[in-house]
Amino acid sequence: MRTILQAKDICKTFSNGSVQQHVLRNLNLEVKEGDFAVIMGNSGSGKSTMLYSLSGIDKPTLGQIMYAGEDISKYSNDKLAIFRRNHCGFVFQQNYLNDTMDVLDNIMVSGLLVNRDRKKIAKRAKELLLEVGLTEEVFHKFPTQLSGGEAQRVAIVRGLINEPEILFADEPTGALNSQNTEYVLDVFTGLHENGQTILMVTHDMRSARRGNRILYLKDGIITGELELGDYRSGDRERHDMLRSFLQEMGW
Q1: Domain-by-domain residue ranges, the chain?
Q2: Pairing between β-strand 197-201 and β-strand 166-170 as defined by DSSP bridges
Q3: pLDDT on residue 115
Q4: CATH homologous superfamily for the domain 35-52+87-249
Q5: Are strands 88-91 and 36-40 parallel, antiparallel or unpaired?
Q6: What per-residue confidence (pLDDT) applies to 1?
Q7: What is the greatest pairwise CA distance in the chain?
Q8: What is the pLDDT of residues 152-172, one digit of tens each?
Q9: Which of 3, 16, 150, 216 has the smallest number of CB atoms closer than 10 Å to its CB?
């Protein structure tokens, strides 16, 4: 598989007056096409900072982030915005849907930034909504009329509308109950099975089990990696492997 994204000696430092906080420390990583890579680690380990640096939401203090042979860490803020719009999709813990727009408009407003063909974007949005298990009666509902799981699936579709090479997810099930968590995780599994590259931050073992690759972050450094292979429901060995790995890492 080809490498899509590569981080080389990434450092991220935040300054508060004379005090400096080193969040990422000479971090190296390759994300390959078709990966479902999961970033885990204790609170404050730098997981979200790592995700935001890799996706161009933020810039590293030092190091290179290579995408298709280009160092995007050198891009201007405007060029980074174009990069994110054309190559990346995002799903966050909060769905950030606009309550004044219905489901279709929430998705289409992102799609129209890249493709001005409104009919084509509407068609793709409807197809994706059906693929994630939502029905046509949801299309013209407003976010306040949706369950948590339905709203998060809409947010996933919004992240996919521009056919991103990489879908970045930051604790996508963190605000959901158990049933809605399973709905959303099934969507991520289906996307991975269809070849979507995913990079996800989570603190939840149930979510992490869906990935094929686990990266453990401690004090801004990747201290361990576990290859799990493709997800299979009810695979007890997979659960035990992940639990043993996390215990070894001090989780």
Answers
A1: 35-52+87-249
A2: parallel
A3: 82
A4: P-loop containing nucleotide triphosphate hydrolases (3.40.50.300)
A5: unpaired
A6: 78
A7: 56
A8: 999 999 999 999 999 999 999
A9: 16
C-beta separation of 21 from 61 below 8 A: no
Mean pLDDT of 137-164: 96
β-strand partners of 20: 15
At 130 the three-state DSSP class reads helix
Answer for the pair 149, 184: CB distance below 8 angstroms, yes or no. Answer: yes
pLDDT of 53 strictly over 90: yes
Give me the residues paired with residue 31 across strands. Answer: 5
**Measured CA distances, 49 to 22, 54, 77, 127 (Å):** 11, 9, 17, 33
Q: Which amino acid is at 1?
A: M
- Residues shown for the chain: 251
> Confidence class of residue 233 from pLDDT cuts 50, 70 and 90?
confident
User: In a 3-state reduction of DSSP, which class is residue 53?
Assistant: helix
pTM: 0.95
| Location of structure tokens 């004379």 | 18
CA-to-CA distance for 58 and 73, rounded, in angstroms?
Answer: 9
